[in-house]
Amino acid sequence: MPELPEIETIKNQLLSAAVIGRSITQIEVLYPQVVAYTEEGFEDVVVGTSVDDVHRKGKYLVLGLDNKRNIVIHFRMNGRLLLRERTFAFDPYTQIVISLDDGRELRFGDSRKFATVELMCDADLKAKIVNKLGPDAASELDLEYFYQVLQSTTRPIKSLLLDQQKIAGIGNIYANEALWWAKIHPETSSADVEKREAKELLGAIHRVLAESIQLGGSSKRWFRHIDGGLGRYQEIFKVYNKAGLPCPRHQDVLIRYSKVGGRGTYHCEICQQIAKNRQTSLIDQ
DNA sequence: AGTCGCCTGGTA
DNA sequence: TACCAGGCGACT
């Protein structure tokens, strides 16, 4: 589920809830497979340390500890991180519980069991995660780089937007929404996107991410805030999950569903047309 | 580039 | 009952 705006929301809420500075008194792993990788024993290294940093890179959430270790969480499809008083009722799907010294617990879980929690030192975080991701779509992506990446491949633009090694943080919802705002067909060859369109698309990416962060992310199904509350961006989806409904720009044209790169894709065939591409021009001749 | 596996739950 | 899902890595 969670893409950049959802993880950013979690991060902001953890900061507001003053998690930084709290020390960790206990770790309970209810579902051992959630721990994807540890350089050392999870519990031994974490208990007794305190959280001194919370940040996000792409779709990863990082809890930095004061011993140079990091708890690195990837939510995959259905991951959920809740902050509860210890006495609060058990949350379904909880897989790992991090107890804080003020009586609160960070409870992480995932109904589909795809999500991962890893413990890694600063050097590993950099080598195994940060250096493998492209610039963060919300905070590090500029037109210069974006256009250069587009020029470098003929892959469908939508697939490129989802490629975390090229651009970090965009997932299926925001790829669909940004392409609609920029009026670009999801299957357009990346290299055929003109600089002017690239600028539009970059603006659209920044727009949808920022608006979603303002609304606390999208809770189409599984995403929850740290207090269990829902995001609201799904209330203003333009095309995502809207197959068969009218395009907001064309009341008589219905949103079409298709697959691009194996992922469900939504677009309006009137406002999002494939730019006349070079291959077609050659064939025409 | 496409398909499969990882798993479970919601919905047509 | 079948199909789909805010992801991603390992296959062919």
From TrEMBL:
Q: Which GO terms describe its molecular function?
A: 8-oxo-7,8-dihydroguanine DNA N-glycosylase activity; class I DNA-(apurinic or apyrimidinic site) endonuclease activity; damaged DNA binding; zinc ion binding
Please provide the record's keywords in A-Z order.
DNA damage, DNA repair, DNA-binding, Glycosidase, Hydrolase, Lyase, Metal-binding, Multifunctional enzyme, Zinc, Zinc-finger
Q: Which cofactor does it need?
A: Zn(2+)
Annotated FPG-type domain ranges read 238-273
> Which GO BP terms apply?
base-excision repair
Q: Which Gene3D superfamilies match?
A: 1.10.8.50, MutM-like, N-terminal (3.20.190.10)
Q: Where is the Formamidopyrimidine-DNA glycosylase catalytic domain?
A: 2-115
Tell me the InterPro entries matching this sequence.
FPG_cat, FPG_Glyclase, FPG_N, H2TH_FPG, Ribosomal_uS13-like_H2TH, Znf_DNA_glyclase/AP_lyase
Do you know which PROSITE patterns this protein is assigned to?
A: FPG_CAT, ZF_FPG_2
Under which name does UniProt file this protein? Bifunctional DNA-formamidopyrimidine glycosylase/DNA-(Apurinic or apyrimidinic site) lyase
Source organism of this protein record: candidate division WWE3 bacterium
**What broad taxonomic lineage does this protein's source fall under?**
Bacteria, Katanobacteria
